[in-house]
């Protein structure tokens, strides 16, 4: 509650937050802040022993009345909870972008193509990431080795749409797959991406398969794949 009241006093932050979420009014007449003050005063006067576990029947009846008064504002409390959850998520994204151990960049999302035809000569979707790293795969001395990924239109006129990645077990194949999927999701959420540069087309579906039942001693390993659409 105090956080939301402070935000209301900052016009710049309010103008930014109002673009992504509705912040309920708390300090107007008959708003939640006034109701909460009256509710706390009612508890202190009518139910001073609210922390006493040996409440009498009379105390229980008083508590029921107070709970009913509180529940009457259920829709307003839901708005407050939703606003605080959104602010917490946005703050977390901002903190990661500022204090990250590796490079973070603002992604560039290309406009959606009007053509649904995919042929050899069409440009098609693009996923171009430089210095991609997984934010959860940190080492003791810093971030893991970054990787570049280019799918779609290239500078030399080539249009590769598929990447076949091979390597030994525990070599980082699944980590790169997860990092690419996470980058696409973060970019379309409007967040910074763990990379030096990220350009991508709009994706509405990600199909993935990750296996964890390798039989390394017998030379058998699962096939992992990912598809962006």
From TrEMBL:
InterPro entries: DNA_mismatch_repair_MutS_C (IPR000432), MutS (IPR045076), P-loop_NTPase (IPR027417). It comes from the Eukaryota. It holds the Pfam family MutS_V. Residues 160-229 form the DNA mismatch repair proteins mutS family domain. Keywords: ATP-binding, DNA-binding, Nucleotide-binding. The keyword DNA-binding applies. Belongs to the DNA mismatch repair MutS family. PANTHER family: DNA MISMATCH REPAIR PROTEIN MSH6, DNA MISMATCH REPAIR PROTEIN MUTS FAMILY MEMBER. This is DNA mismatch repair protein MSH7-like. It comes from Spinacia oleracea. The lineage of its organism: Eukaryota, Viridiplantae, Streptophyta, Embryophyta, Tracheophyta.
